[in-house]
Automatic annotation (TrEMBL):
The modification 4-aspartylphosphate is found at residue 52. This is Response regulatory domain-containing protein. InterPro entries: Bact_response_regulator (IPR050595), CheY-like_superfamily (IPR011006), Sig_transdc_resp-reg_receiver (IPR001789). One of its GO terms (biological process) is phosphorelay signal transduction system. Residues 3-117 form the Response regulatory domain. SMART domains: REC. It comes from Sandarakinorhabdus glacialis.
Length: 119
């Protein structure tokens, strides 16, 4: 079991991922923007973070930069999820472990997350 932080302002996607990962035996924390995610991650360091790119308050690229600047969180795998092409995300300067294009295959995302979880 691992703690997974899911960051997405689309409630339906966040709840779907929560349900799937809980069914897979993980604990899930939810945030609707990067600022909330950073606060949660600083309180309880997750094993992996899955984040949307486009969100209000603090987007996924800004979250990636904030995580990289925080020594306790810099090594946590970050999966960037977006309907935008990967090149757009890279152009924003976001550093991430893996990229998943929306809409995604839920089974492939679970397999990817499980393979990246820091044990």
């Amino acid at each position: 079991m691992a703690i997974i932080l899911v960051v997405d302002d689309e409630v339906g996607i966040a709840r779907l991922l929560e349900d799937v990962f809980v069914d897979d035996g993980h604990e899930v924390m939810l945030a609707s923007n990067g600022r909330q995610a950073l606060e949660l991650a600083l309180t309880t360091v997750p094993a992996i973070i899955l984040t949307d790119l486009m969100m209000p308050v603090m987007d996924g690229a800004e979250l990636a930069a904030a995580l990289a600047a925080e020594p306790r969180l810099a090594g946590v795998p970050l999966v960037m999820m977006s309907s935008m092409p990967e090149g757009v995300v890279v152009a924003k300067g976001a550093a991430f472990t893996a990229f998943v294009r929306k809409p995604f295959n839920i089974y492939a995302l679970v397999d990817l997350a499980n393979s990246l979880i820091v044990r």
